[in-house]
Write a structure and sequence with these properties.
By secondary structure, the chain is an alpha+beta fold. 39% of the residues lie in helices and 25% in strands. The longest helix is centred in the middle third of the chain and has 20 residues.
């Protein structure tokens, strides 16, 4: 089962390819084991690498909040401003997430930086986790 999960992590869902980030995040929220509150306005289609990176950041954050953070709710807000996509992901879990301890957060930060963006994590013990993702968008 774990091998199948590893393979699946490298394949993004059809809804992301066909519908874009908004519909993909709504599907992810519906399937989640915890409540997910979305504030994701109509973003339109974004460049594929941006959509894929944003999707995987939310997916990994949801997995971590459920598996390790013992969260009951996650809030995801997305918007376009200052020439980029901004995502804020906050959970009400136990906190204590530390990218330096070899978590999947390192890979997410690397993915964001490869696109010229940034990923910041704040996770004080007992106060949940906040992940802020910024990815640049090409000028139109």
């Amino acid at each position: 089962m774990e091998d199948l999960r590893e393979i699946a992590r490298g394949i993004h869902p059809v809804i992301l390819s066909e519908g874009g980030l908004g519909p993909a995040l709504r599907t992810l929220a519906r399937r989640a084991a915890i409540a997910v509150e979305l504030d994701v306005p109509a973003l339109g289609r974004l460049p594929e690498p941006v959509e894929v990176a944003a999707y995987y950041v939310v997916s990994e954050a949801l997995t971590n909040a459920t598996r390790h953070g013992r969260a009951s709710v996650m809030r995801v807000a997305a918007g376009q401003r200052d020439g980029g996509l901004h995502l804020s992901i906050r959970d009400d879990g136990v906190g204590g997430a530390d990218p330096a301890r070899g978590s999947g957060l390192i890979g997410l930060r690397d993915r964001a930086e490869a696109l010229g963006g940034s990923l910041k994590v704040s996770s004080p013990p007992g106060q949940g986790t906040l992940i802020v993702l910024r990815l640049p968008l090409p000028r139109r």
